[in-house]
Every structure is written in C-alpha cells, then in structure tokens.
C-alpha cells in the first residue's frame, strides 16, 4: 500500500524525531527506544506544516512498508536506524540470521571495509538486508552507484557476532569483521555459484548425521556401483508446504563428494506445491546414493518446521504478535530447528540457557521470592535480558513493580491476557505461552500480546514429504 504524500512527509518527520533527535525534542527513549505516544502527538501537532495528529501517526505505523515504526500500547518507537546518543544501544531480540545478508555502500568505502569491516559509525547498528534489491534501494539514498556486499551472516553468528531483527527483512549487528564480508568480485562469484555458508554448528550436525548413517562405508552402494559412474536427478516435493533446508541438503551431498553439483530451483522460505521440483543434483553416483537419505532427512524436517511455522504466522497476521520458537528442539539439532522456524517466518526465542535469563516458578521457589530471584539475576546476569514467568495477574503486577521488561504469561486465558495487557500499559513486553494451537493462536494474538511462543513448531511439526527422482545414470 502506497502512503499519500502527507503521510510520507509525516513519516520523515517521525524518523527525524525518533531516530536521530529525540533529545532535542525533549524526549528520553527507554532501553528499547520507546517514547510516550502522547508526547510525540503533541510534538507533531505543534508543527503546523504537517497538519497531523494521533490518527495520522497511527496510519503511518500501520501502513508504512517496511515497518519503520512500532506501537506498544501507548508507547511508540522507530523500529531501526537510530543514531541517538546513549550509554547502550537500543535492545532487540537476538536471532539466528539467514546464511547470507546484504549491505550496500559507497564505492569509495569498499577499501576501508575490506580492511576494517563494517561498523555502525553514526548509527547504533550496522543495517543488513535479506535481498540485494532491498540493500540497493536503501544505499541509493546515499549514492547513485552503490556497491552491494554479501555478508556471511551465519558464519559470523557461529563466530560469536550477535544479530538482531526488528522486522523480518531487516537485520542488525554492532559490527561485521572483514573476514565475513565478500568483496565485490567475491560477491559476483558467490552469486553465480549460488553458494551459501552455513554456521559451524549446522555443519557439525551434518557431519554427525553422515557419520551415523555411513559408518565405515556404504557397503551396498560400494559393492554395486562403479567408482566412475555418474548420475543426476531431482528433489521434488510430494506435498504442498514451505521449503527450508536446501543449503543443508547441498552441504550433505558435498560433504560426501565436493564434485556434486546442486542447483536449487526455489529459495528457502518459498511456498511449493505437490510434485514441484526443489533442486537438481548431479555428480558421482556413489556420492549421490550415499548422501541421499541424510540430505532428504534434513530437508524434510526443516521444511516441516517451516511449514507449520508459516501456518501460525499466517493465522496471527495483522496483529502485533510475533510467533516465537522455543528450546523444545530435537537434541543436537537446535541450530537446524531454529533456522527452519526463522525461514518459516517466525523468530527465535533464546537460543539456549546462556543468552537470556528466564525466571520460572522453580527458580522463584528456590530463591524464596520473585524479588530475590530478580535481585540475584541482576547481579550475576552480565546484563542479559530478564524475563519472568507469570501464572496470575498478581504475578504480572509483581514483575511490573520490579521493573521487569518482559513477562511470560503462562497458560492464561485470552481474557486474562487482555487484562495483563491493560495492566502493563506498555511497560513490559508480554509473551503468551502454553497450549497454543493453530486454531486458537488468532484469539491469543488479538488479546494484544507482543509474542506468542509455540513449542509445537519444533517438537510436533510433521516432516514434509520430499523425494529424489533419478533422471539419468552413466
């Protein structure tokens, strides 16, 4: 939807205030960049050139593409792009990025980037896009001839670089070291070969799966198939769904023999139909036959998770609620399962027990009280985000009084969740959890919560049926 000119003008003014000059307008954003909506309304109404008020501000938030602003109760923020001066950058959820991201820059900046990497400079974060087209569009605001760089995002993540995602097509990082940035020439090579880089933890999963299946050798294939034999075939979907894991399948084949050629016919995240070709594969026959099952196992599982995730995301579409996965993943496949949920349109909750503090009833019981549990977490938590589980409205009130910024509403009815939203009034982000299904997720989302965590995404997803059809053997 294209906004009318008056709303475009208002959007630019809101960006100036919320992204760059909040303090100059008398605003003090909180740790997540939020300011009172009524204060912004007053600032806008004083600008007679804008001729706008609360209704127009809400229209900009709801209809702007990409989502540049976010409303949370009676609070508002710019989703990204901040150059505000503060002691700490604005906080966003930590996520696992896709294999590659893109960044556009001025041609003259490329030599320095190749030596020193990407840094936030005047902004709080380096901004990265999921497509070349979007990166080019953004960078053309600064130069007519942008150079588009490929960021090996998952490799950077595996090395400890923290990524955030304020909205599905936009990623942030404080810095990207040069070893994870492809030069313009390398970028063109990578695009022509369609090679994606997977993080080390996923490569380890693939290696472990191949070792488990192959052991000392594929005795059937090695007994029957000549070493020089070559085969080709195609991977097809045998039911409709959302595909995920093509790069994992590629890696499984090429770990067995790097001479295997794997050409994806669709992109991860695409909706596919029954009998649709997902990829073509060719190369040494022994390698294809040996790696086939492992490759299909990953592809089927990840596509099943992505398909179920997309169902939940679609069911909650149009609300503020973000669908999250959980730690209920297959043992040893945490990174694989969470990547699949992300490809399906969801976002990642905490990756493990190390990147976020989630205080549950057992922790509270052992500490003696919620206040004591929070006190200990704040002392020893190294500045990590703290979330508290609430089983009643009394728990919600207690968490709010302690200044907790994120509260998990455990097994509450939609009616009680609405009351929790009213109580919070934007002071904390609220996450619904427990007994969430595709059938009731819309009702939960309409209660006004910020997040809905769904364990079923990874522990109950049905594998998408995929198959290998051989087309030629020599």
Q: What does this molecule look like?
A:
The longest helix has 31 residues, at 285-315. The protein has four domains: 5-78, Arc Repressor Mutant, subunit A, CATH 1.10.10; 94-193, ADP-ribosylation fold (Alpha-Beta Barrel), CATH 3.20.170; 200-304 and 466-473, Aldehyde Oxidoreductase, domain 3 (Alpha-Beta Complex); 313-459, TIM Barrel, CATH 3.20.20.70. The protein is globular and about 80 Å long. The protein is of the alpha+beta class and 474 residues long. The model is unreliable at 191-196 (pLDDT under 50). The protein has a six-stranded parallel sheet with strand order 18-23-22-21-20-19. Strands 4-9-10-7 form a four-stranded antiparallel sheet. Helix 15 (393-401) links the parallel strand 20 and strand 21. The protein is 39% helix and 20% strand. It contains 18 helices and 24 strands. Helix 1 (5-20) packs across helix 3, helix 8 packs across helix 11 and helix 13 (361-367) crosses helix 14 (370-380).
Summarize the structure.
With 474 residues, this protein is an alpha+beta fold. Helix content is 39%, strand content 20%.
Which terms summarize this structure?
alpha+beta; 4 domains; Arc Repressor Mutant, subunit A; 24 strands; 39% helix; Aldehyde Oxidoreductase, domain 3; ADP-ribosylation fold; four-stranded antiparallel β-sheet; 474 residues
Shape: globular
Could you tell me the number of beta strands? 24
CATH architecture of the largest domain: Alpha-Beta Barrel
Under CATH, the homologous superfamily of the largest domain reads Aldolase class I
- How does the helix and strand content classify structurally? alpha+beta
Number of domains: 4
Largest sheet: 6 strands, parallel
User: How would you write the strand order of the largest sheet?
Assistant: 18-23-22-21-20-19
Proportion of residues in extended strands: 15-25%
Q: How many angstroms does the end-to-end distance come to?
A: 53 Å
Number of helices: 18
Examine the coordinates and then state which fold CATH places here, giving the name of the CATH topology of the largest domain: TIM Barrel
Q: Into which percent range does the helicity of residues fall?
A: 25-40%
Write down the overall mean pLDDT.
88
Radius of gyration: 24 Å
Q: Which runs of at least 5 residues are low in confidence (pLDDT < 50)?
A: 191-196
Question: Which CATH first-tier class of the largest domain would you pick?
Answer: Alpha Beta
């Amino acid at each position: 939807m294209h906004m009318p000119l008056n709303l475009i003008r208002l959007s630019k003014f809101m960006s100036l205030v919320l992204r760059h000059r909040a303090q100059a307008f008398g605003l003090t954003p909180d740790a997540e960049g939020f300011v009172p909506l009524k204060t912004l309304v007053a600032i806008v109404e004083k600008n007679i050139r804008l001729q706008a008020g609360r209704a127009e501000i809400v229209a900009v938030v709801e209809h702007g593409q990409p989502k540049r602003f976010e409303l949370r109760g009676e609070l508002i923020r710019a989703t990204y792009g901040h150059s505000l001066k503060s002691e700490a950058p604005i906080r966003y959820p930590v996520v696992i990025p896709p294999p590659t991201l893109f960044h556009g820059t001025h041609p003259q900046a490329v030599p320095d980037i190749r030596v020193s990497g990407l840094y936030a400079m005047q902004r709080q974060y380096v901004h990265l896009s999921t497509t070349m087209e979007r990166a080019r569009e953004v960078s053309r605001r600064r130069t007519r001839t942008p150079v588009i760089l490929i960021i090996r995002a998952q490799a950077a993540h595996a090395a400890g670089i923290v990524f955030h995602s304020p909205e599905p097509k936009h990623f942030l990082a404080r810095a990207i070291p040069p070893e994870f940035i492809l030069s313009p020439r390398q970028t063109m090579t990578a695009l022509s070969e369609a090679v994606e880089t997977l993080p080390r933890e996923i490569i380890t999963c693939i290696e472990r799966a191949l070792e488990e299946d192959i052991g000392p050798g594929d005795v059937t294939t090695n007994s029957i198939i000549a070493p020089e034999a070559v085969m080709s075939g195609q991977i097809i979907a045998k039911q409709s769904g959302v595909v995920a894991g093509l790069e994992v399948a590629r890696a499984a084949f090429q770990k067995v023999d790097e001479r295997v050629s794997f050409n994806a016919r669709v992109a991860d995240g695409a909706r596919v139909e029954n009998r649709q070709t997902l990829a073509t594969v060719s190369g040494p026959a022994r390698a294809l036959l040996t790696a086939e099952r492992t490759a299909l196992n990953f592809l089927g599982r990840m596509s099943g998770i992505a398909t179920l995730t997309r169902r939940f995301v679609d069911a909650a579409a149009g609300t503020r609620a973000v669908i999250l996965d959980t730690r209920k993943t297959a043992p040893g496949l945490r990174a694989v399962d969470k990547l699949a949920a992300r490809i399906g349109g969801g976002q990642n909750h905490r990756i493990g027990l190390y990147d976020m503090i989630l205080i549950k009833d057992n922790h509270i019981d052992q500490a003696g009280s919620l206040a004591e549990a929070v006190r200990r977490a704040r002392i020893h938590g190294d500045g990590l985000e703290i979330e508290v589980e609430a089983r009643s409205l009394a728990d919600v009130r207690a968490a709010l009084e302690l200044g907790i910024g994120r509260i998990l509403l455990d097994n509450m009815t939609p009616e009680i969740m609405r009351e929790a939203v009213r109580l919070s009034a934007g002071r904390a982000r609220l996450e619904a959890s427990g007994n969430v299904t595709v059938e009731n997720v819309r009702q939960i989302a309409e209660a006004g919560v910020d997040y809905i965590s769904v364990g079923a995404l990874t522990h109950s997803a049905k594998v998408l049926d995929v198959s290998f059809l051989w087309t030629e053997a020599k």
